[in-house]
Amino acid sequence: MTSEIQVANPVATRWAEALHSLATQKGALEEVRRDMALLAGEVRNERVRVYLTTASVPTEDKRRALAPLLSQFSTWSRNLVEMALERRREALLVGLPAAFQDREDALSGVLKGVVESARELGAGEVQDLEASLTTQFQHKVVLTTRLNPELVGGVRVFVGAHMIDRSVQGRLEDLGRKLRNAPLSHS
Prior knowledge:
Layout (H helix, E strand, L loop, with lengths): L9 H17 L2 H15 L2 H8 L5 H12 L4 H12 L5 H16 L2 E8 L5 H15 L2 E8 L6 E6 L2 E6 H14 L6
């Protein structure tokens, strides 16, 4: 049940939302879903991710490398990728498929998240956390787990752009902030 899910890139999220909205308006949602699946397959490759995110690689080289993929894309997806290349925002293409899927999930009432812990969480613990977060976010929350040995205890949860830090370190940092900001009484 462990996962390599990353916290959503806010720029990729905005672009994915715009693409989803446009595709919905134009009746091209199925085509764009297919495009995002193709792009997701490409960016799973570490070499592709590094190539797209390396600033020293000229834009024209990236455009040529993406040409075979773009030839399979709908007009809407191809235009978005071209705009990303023109604006030197190629790195957002790495997170675009996941952000697009997050948008689809959110519209269907599902939010995906990741819970980090120092030890493997039991299924009941994850279900209880999902239920609590579902109440808090007023959307069904589905979590995957990720081990983080740097956490001494507790959990750290990422849902969309939100982070809820209930780790021992997070609680100690919060306590330290409260103590530093507490007014001193003059008796």
